[in-house]
Amino acid sequence: MTTRSLRACAALLCAGAVVLPLAGPASAAPEGSYWYTALHMDDNHRIATGKGAVIGLIDGPVDPTAAELVGQHVVAGASYCDGLKSPLTPGRDTFHATSMAALLVGSGHGTLPDGSGIHGVAPDATLRVYAIDDGKRPDFFECHQSYGAVGATQQSQLAGLAVRQAVDDGVDVLSMSLTMGGSDIVTAVDYALDHGVVVVGAVGGPDSLGNPAGIGGVIAVTACDAEGAPWPDAADGAVSVAAPGVDVSSGSVDRAGHWSSRGTGTGTSPATAIVAGMVAVLHSRYPHATSAQLVQHVLRTTTTPGLHFSPVNGWGNASLTRMLASDPGQWPDHLPFRGISADLLEPAQRLQDLAGTLDPEESYEYLLAHQPGFRPGSGPHTPTAAPPATASPAVAAPKPARGRDGTSPVLLVVGAGLLALVVAAAAVLLRSRARTVSSAPAPSGSGALTSTPSTPSEGP
After folding, report:
1. pLDDT tens-place string over residues 185-228
2. 357 lies in a domain?
């Protein structure tokens, strides 16, 4: 990654560099809880806790018996997998989704000796769970069901169904710690954005954002570590913001299917859940603000001053403290970068789009799409393409600028070539996810979340 030397995601604290305490809090917080302290979550929760907000989690099954979730507002949305009657199902295959749920709405009560556990960013929000994965494979989506296509196309279809159902169920925020290709997810996310739902998606890596993060209008989240340095396995491009995602408290599930508050995870998955939780808290504090204004506020209140954009960490580190300090209703009711990639714009054009004054026909992206042979001599970073998850174009005409999963018409081949591409697509349908027990390591460069379960000796 050519820009990896940038260390623009400088601080997780709203004031500047992260300063971690020499000793933990009075209660023995789970390993990896540095983010909670660095983001001043206790102070923020004195202002708002997400009450009244509804988060939709598009993931796998969640274990409702996990200590952090008992007594919380966690409800079943829908399950799209054969053999998985409810998205709220205990078991050994529930780790990734349960971890995300704990980071979103966890109570802070867990399985550690003193009863502590993972704190969620929005503990009083309602969480609706939509399972499009049975959780049985560590690095890929796989959901056995009796309808639709297979492989990459199937997962895009299932994700699309889940997104539309969540929107119809009235969610305010969608948290999607996953990446995929396919056209169904693009049209479904457009449906969500059209209906005023804030969509938060995990950046893939290292070569592509993937979808939904690559779809214009989505808050695309990358990861930073405790020092503010970017996670090197995340993609550059039209990134929106960064949040803690390296060695973050994520819990674990043992082979018997028992949840534990011990364990840390690394990747864009936890960072995405943290930002989605922030949006829910912001919505609960300022319920009059539109979804477009909420997105504007997230981008405008990072720890990076002056509205400076970087393809590594977008507009900077998300800061809930700064979000809550002012009313998002002050911003234009304009969803920024809807159908336009921020990294394809000049700095002045980015600010124009934030203000809702950019003429699309003046952007590099428009010129590249509509004037064959146009090549800017210098200018904005050009993103790499996402892995092709399906042989069909990711964006249906007439919206060529909407969605950026990298699928190209040249991939539309016939016969054996098409079959080979579909098989290949299934192999690269990636997900930002963590596992405690895996028969094989996550593939290098996949953007997959890796997890390290803590042993008792590592705990308090």
Report:
1. 999 999 999 999 999 999 998 888 899 999 999 999 999 999 88
2. yes
Identify whether the C-beta of residue 36 lies closer than 8 Å to the C-beta of residue 264.
Answer: no
CA atoms within 13 A on the CB side of 235: 34
Confidence class of residue 28 from pLDDT cuts 50, 70 and 90?
low
**Residue 418 in this model has a pLDDT that exceeds 60:** no
How far is the CA of 421 from the CAs of 92, 212, 387, 411, in angstroms? 32, 21, 11, 8
User: pTM score, two decimals?
Assistant: 0.78
What is residue 223's predicted lDDT score, i.e. its pLDDT?
A: 97
Mean pLDDT to the nearest integer, 325-329: 98
Residue 329 belongs to some domain of the structure = yes
Mean residue pLDDT across the chain: 76
**Burial 134-148, CB ≥16 within 10 A → b, else e:** bbebbbbbbbebeee
Q: What dihedral angle (degrees, nearest 10) is formed by the CA atoms of 188, 189, 194, 197?
A: 120
Range of the domain at 129: 50-446
Give the angle 309-315-318 at the CA atoms, nearest 5°: 165
N- to C-terminal Cα distance for the chain? 38
Structural domain count, the chain: 1
Tell me, yes or no, whether 264 lies in a domain. Answer: yes
Count of C-beta atoms within a 10 Å radius of residue 287: 10
Banded model confidence at residue 367, pLDDT cuts 50, 70, 90: low
- 226-to-39, 110, 247, 259 alpha-carbon distances in Å: 11, 23, 8, 25
Residue 450 pLDDT level (bands cut at 50, 70, 90): very low
Alpha-carbon distance 427 to 450, whole Å? 18
Domain assignment present for 17: no
Q: Tell me the CATH number at 132.
A: 3.40.50.200
DSSP assigned state of 64: T
Instruction: Yes or no: say if 358 and 348 are a contact pair by the CB < 8 Å rule.
Output: no
Compute the average pLDDT of residues 337-363.
83
Considering only the C-alpha atoms of the chain, give the largest distance between any 2 of them, rounded to a whole number of Å. Answer: 65
Provide DSSP, 257-298: --EES--EEESHHHHHHHHHHHHHHHHHH-TTS-HHHHHHHH
